[in-house]
Amino acid sequence: MNPSLIMSARDIEFLLYDWLDVTALTERERFADHSRETFDQVLRLCQDLATTYFAPHNRENDLSEPTFDGERVHIIPAAGKALRAFADAGLIGAAMDYEIGGMQLPYVVNSACMAWFHAANVATTSYLLLTAANANLLAAHGSPEQIDAFVRPMLDGRNFGTMALSEPHAGSSLADITTRAAPQDDGTYRIFGRKMWISGGDHDLSENIVHPVLARIPGAPKGTRGISLFIVPKYLPGEAGSRGERNDIVLAGINHKMGWRGTVNTAPVFGDGNFTPGGVPGAVGYLVGEPNNGLAQMFTMMNEARIGVGMTATALGYTGYLKSLDYARNRPQGRPVGARGGAQVPIVDHPDVRRMLLAQKSYAEGALALQLYCGKLVDDQHTAGTPDDRARAATLLRILTPIAKSWPSQWCLAANDLAIQVHGGAGYTRDYDVEQHYRDNRLNPIHEGTHGVQSLDLLGRQVTLDNGAALTALLETMAATVAAARAATDPELTAFAAALEAAATRLAATTAGLGRDADPVSALANSAAYLEAFGHIVLAWIWLEQSLAAAPHVARGDDFGHGKRAAARYFFHWELPRTNPLFDLLDSGDRTTLDLDPSWL
Questions:
Q1: 546 three-state secondary structure
Q2: 158 close to 238: Cβ distance less than 8 angstroms
Q3: What is the reported pLDDT for 170?
Q4: Which of 304, 365, 435, 448 does the annotation list as catalytic?
């Protein structure tokens, strides 16, 4: 059987078992019913479902995007069949509690499972990503009645979810939202306002659609402190779990993006008077938790979505790499330098093609390892054996989240760019998948907060909170890896360790300098450079970690181990040195963007 061109089951196995040792999680009470056998069964099931139901209509999704006739959104039937197969397998709540219909699968294993679907068909899978994150949000903050009415049907696949935050005039600036919530005598609210860029905002793929909506109650404080969270379903709950009256939610239209074309992206209007449930104007909304706490609650979903976007970017970069590698092995063209005649050779024999493939490998495999490491941190912050271990995992996850979102969104997109280049003239035709993967992945640097937003979070918040506790924890973790690499007595690993140690030392020094010498405005003006340098150091550490785990494979002389070592070598020789000019810029306190008069542009 030929290896899959969607994802690498061999790499996932290595990361989960050889590196992260996820079978040790089964010693914890939450995962005691699981074993390596159950993990492998779910992974094989996901590979099969992704291959059978999701990958076949990926191109059709792109060519036949959703349409809106003014009343209904129309989506290709194959998407609905794939989503039903996923739901019937019980996978929507795979990582959630038994009590509400989940499998209590470790988050890290569930992340590996989802990588197959993101790589096979990102547009159809996005409905599942949003629904699972929505269900987790309401399970964490909703009342028992709200969980029964909205979460359980989502885990059954009868309801799908969205994330309704942005507004046309506000975008990522949630402090500026104007959607309002009017309290009613029965304890509900009537919601009035417009949202924008809401993926999955209307369709017939499920019985109902659950919108978590941010809005303001009369008299609420200004800014983010006055935002509340509401459940606003497309259809109101009926008796005995049935679907009730249509809520006052309609579409102003749908947006047409360059990628993810199979995911309907909408501009919904709440309370526009098209429907009046119970004869009262406005869309019926149900307050989640306490008033004016909506943004804090929504961060449960937003942080999960940020990591999910990182996995999406990773998976698209990974499948593009596998497809360009397959093309390079099978496309004869040209002859080696210096050859005089003879048969053409596969383009994989040309050094510059190998450079492009190795770069993709280092980006995609490095990003996948980072995503699964973060998944393991999610499990550890909830189930590790001691309070200190749980707190440390939460601290590391906090500082790595902006990296997990942004680094794959930038560099796995670069991998897709290289995949097109490896295909040559064929790469930018629709006869090959790689041009679609590039367009799909180009959305991820914007999804769930742009690079600029993530860099402000990293430099402006995460590295300074609690006197830099998160950065200290991360640097200590890197130092432990450096020590382990030196103890391995492998000269190349020792060299990698020295390079990582030097980079981490410079990261610490630059961070301290930005906090000590620069005013906040000046420091944050160059935060994108900080994010990029920080991310590359994190990935160098990830590659050193993988190199240590792969050492037995290298000793046995197998191709898998040598491939891991070659990708690490590439990253340390070609990629980690990129951080030095970025640190030079940051240390200089450059004010080019601050001092620029917009009229000069």
A1: helix
A2: no
A3: 79
A4: 448
